[in-house]
Each structure stands twice: as structure tokens, then as C-alpha cells.
Design brief:
OB fold (Dihydrolipoamide Acetyltransferase, E2P); S-adenosyl-L-methionine; 30% strand; 3 domains; 11 helices; 7-stranded mixed beta sheet; transferase; methyltransferase; alpha/beta; NA-bd_OB-fold; binds S-adenosylmethionine
């Protein structure tokens, strides 16, 4: 079929203005309207609303529309504070009331478990939300560019590399926003050149600020395009004076033309390569390359759910795979005989060992490497675990990891997931191989966004 025929086959034409009712939301929170059989995705539109929109893109089986006017409003609609956040995509659900965001997330988990996981009879609990769903992020990574002749910080326009200046990010800890502005305003005094992505010139690419929610300690990382550091002493001294809470200042060097923010080389400019924070009564040391959950208030609820699901009595050997700096490992250790953490990032494992030692926890051990390799070795050596806890990145569990679990036959598995799609895929395999899903508890770690974290308890049915 020719391209033109495809185009004429759609019931809508590009640039026409139409009116329709929104019947659903996509997993990214876009409103779905149907013109005849043809779905059109419209950002900013909510279920139950009648909207006027302009068709901006047509594909063979679906199209995209730009919201022009809400003719009939949803009771769940809240007024947005600023269009800027819609342009950057940092708060894609900001127009949806918070209780409705939580419902949306619960439905997403239900939908995906049923569609991908074939688990339609599972009861998903109400999402554990926040009292104040703003200002929660403990980490910011902002690009630095020259805009109107000035060194500017902000965020990328959606689907582009243009930076939109932003000073108040709304979902970040306001003290982090403030620290970014402090760094931004000091840099021009020393003629620091912002990064120019197209020409791959300039010096300062990103400013990263991390802040311990409970400790108040700040870590600042300057990601630079070259190894040099002109006027280093003066800049370091200006930053330490302006940010008395800063305990760690790092230069991270990233000379590559890449979207990846951090480079592999770094050096400490002030303090050490770590800051501290507290979780569930433990104090953690966190290096700039280590993963640390971004929403500290919800992390405690997330970990507590995982610990409760593990239902430990004190006699169990537990594996905590993808353990990062050992946060969940230590939380589990209180009720286990022994917990063994596995993690691929070496500095994170160094942090984890130190964290166990400084918190006086002796019944844990840690191993660095891909969890799928380590656990496969365990299975081959006939080592056993009573409970396996996993908290993998978005891509979920490697097939070899699941194979090893099925060989080791733990009584329980607790799966902490930041991606319902890969969670459902993995649960399907496990539930077809001797495990049953007992509980599904979503936790809202990322209010105002469509992301949802889920904790699942599985137990072994085939003995
Ligand atoms: C979602 S984080 C969870 C970390 C930790 N449980 C926490 O809550 O802080 C996933 C972790 O898996 C690690 N990781 C990624 N791929 C891995 C692999 N193949 N094997 C082991 N760890 C991996 C990452 O470095 C990261 O620390």
C-alpha cells in the first residue's frame, strides 16, 4: 500500500480540529479519544472530558492530538501552576488531582498484571501515597547551557535538547533548588563556560545536587566536558562558603558526546566522595555513583512493606539482589539469620560494607558483580536461600536470574519493581513455574509523574 493510501485510510486528517470524549489514559497519562475505530492520544486530557483538539500526527493505526480546549471538565482536573512543566515533562500528571493519580497508578498495575502477566484475579492494594506530594526528590541533575548570553540551568524541553530555564522544580527538595541556583550564580563570576552540546565545547555540562533528607548534608557534583579546572581553588572556596551544608564536592569528567550524564572519571574537590542520610533507624553513606532512592519519605514505607512481606522469623537466609548501598539489606537483617547483598556497582558495594560496619550489623555480607552471575554460581554450588528479595532496574530480572531462583526454590520471593511491564513479565514466568502471587502493594515514589513502584510477595506452591 502506498504511503498516501495509508494516510487517506485514517478517519482523521492532520491539522483538522475535532471534538471528542476522552475514554481512557495511556500508561504515560495521555488522554485517549476514538474517532470511529481510530485512537488519538492527547496530552493533558482526562477521562470523561469532552475536548477540542487539533490532529498533529497521523500514523496507520493511531494518531496524536494537541489539546485546544476542555469543553467539559473532569472533576479530577486541577489547575496547573505553570505551562513550563508541561513543556519539560517533569510533571506529566500535574493536571490530575493526587487521589486520582493514585487510582490511575493502581489501575495501571492491575491492567499490566492482567495483560502481560496473565494475572487478572490478583487483588492490587490501594497505592500508598504521600501527605504532601511535592518537594520530595532528594536528587537533581540539571543541564547547564548558555541562554541569552548567560549560564543557565533548567530542564530539557520534551523530546529535545533545548534547555528551558527553571528555578523552582516543584517536585525537588526546595533546598536542592536553592543550592543549584547558588552554584549557577557563582560560576559566571569565574568565567566558567557552559557546555555547548552541538559544538561539544564549553566546560560545565551538568550540576548534580543530592541532599540527605534526614541529615541535611549536601553533595554537589560538577560534570565537566574536559579534565581541566580553571580557577579551581577560588571556585571551590566560593562554593564551600556559600553552601555550609555541603560535605562533598566532586568533579566528574564526561568527555563523551552522549546523553549519559556521568562520566567514569571523577575527583574529590572538597570533603569526601560521600554524604550521609538516615533510613529506618540506620545511617547510610552514599557515594556519587551509588543508587539511592529519590523519595526518602516513601522509601521508608517501601522498605517496610518489603520487610513485612518477607515475614522473617530470625532463622532465614535471605538474598537481597540489586542491593545498591545495602539499604534494604540492613532493614531485612533485623529479622533474618543472614542477608547476602548482590550489586553490580563497586562503589555501592564499598558503601554497603561500610554501612553494615558503621551500623554494627554483623549478619550481612556483600558481593559485587552481575546478580544473575552470582546467583547462578550459588545455584550451581547448591547454596540455598529461604527468601529472595529483588529490586532490579527497569529492565527487570535476567532470564538466568529466574532460572537460578527456580533451581534454588526459595519459600518466598519479594519483588520490588519500578516498572510494572517487566514485573508482570517476570511474575508470569514465576507463576507458571511453582510460585503464586500473594500480595501486590504499589507505593507512590514519584508523585506528579506516571511512574509507579510495586512490591509483590510470591510464595512457593510446589514443594
Ligand atoms: C532500583 S536500584 C535498587 C537498589 C537498592 N535496593 C535500593 O533500594 O537502594 C537497582 C540496583 O541494581 C543495580 N544493578 C543494575 N544491574 C545489575 C545487575 N545486573 N546485577 C546486580 N545489580 C545491578 C544498580 O546499580 C542499582 O543499585
Amino acid at each position: 500500500m502506498s504511503k498516501d493510501k495509508n494516510k487517506t485510510a485514517t478517519p482523521v486528517r492532520k491539522n483538522e480540529t475535532l471534538e471528542a470524549e476522552i475514554i481512557d489514559l495511556t500508561h504515560e497519562g495521555m488522554g485517549v479519544a476514538k474517532i470511529e475505530y481510530y485512537p488519538i492520544f492527547i496530552e493533558g486530557a482526562l477521562v470523561g472530558e469532552t475536548v477540542e483538539f487539533k490532529v498533529i500526527k497521523t500514523k496507520k493505526t493511531f494518531g496524536f492530538g494537541k489539546l485546544l480546549k476542555v469543553i467539559e471538565k473532569s472533576p479530577d482536573r486541577v489547575e496547573i501552576e505553570d505551562e513550563i512543566y508541561a513543556q519539560t515533562g517533569t510533571m506529566p500528571l500535574q493536571h490530575l488531582s493526587y487521589p486520582a493519580q493514585l487510582n490511575f497508578k493502581k489501575e495501571q498495575v492491575e491492567k499490566v498484571l492482567s495483560k502481560i502477566g496473565n494475572l487478572s484475579d490478583i487483588a492490587v492494594e490501594e497505592v500508598i501515597g504521600m501527605d504532601d506530594p511535592f518537594g520530595y526528590r532528594n536528587k537533581a541533575q540539571v543541564p547547564v547551557r548558555k541562554i541569552d548570553g548567560r549560564l543557565t540551568t533548567g530542564f530539557f524541553r520534551k523530546n529535545s535538547h533545548d534547555v528551558i530555564p527553571i528555578e523552582d522544580f516543584k517536585i525537588q527538595d526546595p533546598k536542592i533548588d536553592q543550592a543549584i541556583l547558588t552554584v549557577r550564580d557563582i560560576m559566571p563570576k569565574f568565567h566558567v563556560k557552559p557546555y555547548n552540546e552541538k559544538a561539544h565545547t564549553g566546560w560545565l555540562r551538568h550540576i548534580i545536587v543530592r541532599r540527605g533528607y534526614f541529615s541535611g548534608e549536601l553533595m554537589v557534583v560538577l560534570v565537566t566536558n574536559t579534565h581541566d579546572f580553571h580557577r579551581e581553588e577560588e571556585i571551590v572556596s566560593a562554593l564551600t562558603r556559600a553552601l555550609p551544608e555541603m560535605v562533598s564536592l566532586i568533579q566528574n569528567i564526561n568527555t563523551e558526546k552522549t546523553n549519559v550524564i556521568l562520566g567514569t572519571e571523577s575527583r574529590v574537590l572538597f570533603g569526601q566522595d560521600s554524604y550521609k542520610d538516615d533510613l529506618l533507624g540506620f545511617t547510610f553513606t552514599i557515594s556519587h555513583q551509588s543508587f539511592y532512592q529519590v523519595n526518602p519519605v516513601q522509601t521508608e514505607k517501601l522498605y517496610q512493606t518489603a520487610v513485612d512481606f518477607a515475614g522473617l522469623s530470625g532463622n532465614e537466609t535471605v538474598i537481597d539482589a540489586y542491593c545498591g548501598i545495602g539499604t534494604l539489606t540492613l532493614a531485612l537483617s533485623r529479622q533474618a539469620k543472614h542477608v547476602h547483598g548482590m550489586e553490580i556497582v563497586e562503589p555501592a558495594i564499598e558503601n554497603a560494607k561500610l554501612n553494615a560496619e558503621t551500623n554494627g550489623v554483623a549478619n550481612v555480607s556483600f558481593e559485587v558483580g552481575p546478580a544473575e552471575n552470582i546467583i547462578t554460581e550459588w545455584a550451581k554450588a547448591d547454596k540455598r536461600a529461604d527468601v529472595i528479595v529483588v529490586d532490579p532496574p527497569r529492565k527487570g530480572l535476567a532470564p538466568e536470574f529466574i532460572d537460578a531462583v527456580l533451581t534454588m526454590k526459595p519459600e518466598k520471593m519479594v519483588y520490588v519493581s519500578c516498572n510494572p511491564g517487566t514485573l508482570a513479565r517476570d511474575l508470569k514466568i514465576l507463576s507458571e513455574s511453582g510460585y503464586t502471587v500473594e500480595k501486590v502493594q504499589p507505593v507512590d515514589m514519584f508523585p506528579q509523574t506516571y511512574h509507579v513502584e510495586t512490591v509483590v510477595l510470591m510464595s512457593r506452591v510446589e514443594k
